[in-house]
Design goal:
alpha+beta; 3-stranded antiparallel sheet
């Protein structure tokens, strides 16, 4: 099984990476699923997995009236 091609992060992915304490310009995205974001370092090739929280847990996604 070959490696996936890493891509530049989208704005939403950048927000998640910054919340995890990563310097955005040093990381590329390998995969983005509903549960996690897998990123790889541009310099060392180190892979990190960022767990996502559900929108209900953060208070987002709810209609406020």
């Amino acid at each position: 099984m070959g490696r996936s091609r890493a891509t530049k992060p989208t704005r939403g992915q950048k927000i998640q990476m910054a919340a995890a304490g990563l310097v955005i310009k040093n990381w590329l995205v390998l995969s983005d699923t509903a549960a996690e974001l897998k990123v790889v370092s541009r310099g060392s090739g180190q892979v990190r997995i960022i767990k996502k929280t559900s929108p209900a847990a953060t208070g987002r996604g709810q209609n406020k009236k």
